[in-house]
């Protein structure tokens, strides 16, 4: 797509249909804040906007130029196309495996994280021939660049020095206003860590600021954009306000170590009692993956296994995003695919609880009794994210069953848990065949259909055997847990090839969901800012 030619994009009717896949929602925040914290939100959002600029550069070389050109056009079609480009951070359809919009060129497998012409096999071969280059090239915070006939790793802090400087200034400014002293200390430390590239100290401090009325997750976190090696982390940021529900769920923090001992398929117990701090938040503003395509409803951070091993993790539930997705998306998807008896069991509270335990599962990774590798995805490479999302989904459901059996939740919740889980997996299948959540969901539902946990009810819809769901989920969780724990690349490939396609019965029912949005487009509440 020529940056100055909206005419090369899809026609107006097509653009309108593409935009209908998003339900526009205004994110509401229910908690009152002090004047200092409200002032700090303004600075945190300023930092977030600079992180947003970094990600545009990481996702592609041309996306920002296309957006700017469309913004300068007065054509109504250009307005609609610009909105799609904003939602996907470039001229590609994020719900159709980054299919180019109009005449845009295909997006490179590694975006701008690698040379556009670098193929996965070439990268692997180079690493095999130059083992001394592996630390720099496989670092999660370097770009890979060609230097003559060689490949070199260039630190993020050198490439994005200007933007990170603005981020640091905004974080320091916010630290002067916030009401929580520990959060103020963290912000100053995070500012220094982002510009220096030494993030471990601030990551450790962040674990201890869960009682602050406002919060921010900011830094290089997720590897979803790296389709070359699955190790490069993209910058992102979410600004949040703490929700009172946090206090209701804090009791689960004490249960997490016990759940870790019950991981299905683990060949060794977790290394130690991992600390997990649970928090429920309303999202105020979000950037990058938190505001792109399928928006996250929760996060378990930091992602670095070494930091989790030493100081712990924070589990963030995004209450207002979960609520926004349930009514207009998850419930209608379930009603469109499942039989009426099953669809009636879909429950918003269960959706929240499974989301929480999905994230717990990310933190509870049993393995060898040794310090984890800095490259925790090494071995599974580009298959890691699919297998890890599959594992977390299944283990989260198994954890729910365990807690019901132990009396932490009502035993009568189990049928609703099984059906709501299936509804949530169905929701994720619509994110695109190459999306990691969708690929994980295909593995789960294909396995469920083969083992008759779900089956056709004679009317073209799915019936659910809720008892069988838990049996098959436990068996599949064991298999996936062992693959992830062993980092067995070949076994991961076998599982994806065997079960990674959506069963025809489900695929056919999806044709009936054309009026159901796939995900959300956020409107943020500017009144929360001091301006």
As a whole number of angstroms, the C-alpha radius of gyration is 22 Å
- Put simply, the count of helices is 22
**Overall residue-averaged pLDDT value:** 91
Q: Which regions are unreliable across 5 or more consecutive residues at pLDDT < 50?
A: 366-376
Proportion in β-strands: 5-15%
Give the total of beta strands.
Answer: 13
Assembly annotation: single chain
Strand order, biggest sheet?
6-7-8-10-9
User: What separation lies between the terminal Cα atoms?
Assistant: 37 Å
**Helix percent band:** 40-55%
Could you say which overall geometry the principal axes of the C-alpha atoms support?
A: globular
The biggest beta sheet reads: 5 strands, mixed
User: Structural class, judged by helices and strands?
Assistant: alpha+beta
Topology, pairings included?
Blueprint: H1 12-19, E1 22-26, H2 35-59, H3 63-71, H4 76-88, E2 92-93, E3 99-100, H5 120-129, H6 134-137, E4 142-147, E5 150-155, H7 156-159, H8 161-175, H9 181-196, H10 200-206, E6 214-222, E7 234-242, H11 245-249, H12 256-261, E8 276-287, E9 298-301, H13 305-310, E10 313-318, H14 319-337, H15 340-343, H16 348-363, H17 384-405, H18 414-429, H19 436-450, E11 454-456, E12 462-464, H20 466-486, H21 489-499, H22 504-509, E13 519-523
Parallel strand pairs: 1-13, 8-10
Antiparallel strand pairs: 2-3, 4-5, 6-7, 7-8, 9-10, 11-12
How would you concisely characterize the structure shown here?
The protein is built from 22 helices and 13 strands. By secondary structure, the chain is α+β, with helices and mostly antiparallel strands.
